[in-house]
Amino acid sequence: MREGRPWRCWTPAKDYFMLLYLDLGKGTQTHGASLTDVQHNEWYIGEYSRQAVEEALMKEKKDGSFLVRDCSTKSSAEPYVLVVFHGNKVYNVKIRFLERNQQFALGTGLRGDEKFNSVEDIIEHHKHFPIILIDGKDKTGVHRGQCYLTQPLPLNRHFSPW
């Protein structure tokens, strides 16, 4: 077992991680990923629903706590979502993959387009520089918050591996 998580198993013969996770309502599933993907990080939750991740972050209630989940659209252009708790709200920020330059960016690209070489770089950057959080229900985009990513949500406290 790798990283002390029973649902993440290293398969050396195939050189990838096998992630075992519970997708609510679908039972246990398996998902393989290359070593360069985000799956080996403690902040990656995989294919959980937006609702399940939001509920877990609301229970934890710690500003700056976060997770990265698979985007429900499952497109290569928007593979992941960064989910952040701040100011008693949960924000879902799309992580886009820019095919042209093989980089990642946050959000829609309408308000700035800072690029990163990996999802890990995004997380590390926003531990030291605040992330701008825009309420998706605010059509004006005026109400913005900002916070640092402080700690990944403890998966074993909120999500059962079986």
TrEMBL record:
GO CC field: cytoplasm
Biological process annotations from GO: cell surface receptor protein tyrosine kinase signaling pathway; intracellular signal transduction
InterPro entries listed in its UniProt record: Immunoreceptor_sig_adapters, SH2, SH2_dom_sf
Protein keywords: SH2 domain
Keyword Chaperone appears in the UniProt entry: no
Domain SH2: 43-153
Keyword Cell inner membrane: no
Record Gene3D superfamilies: SH2 domain
Protein name from the UniProt record: SH2 domain-containing protein
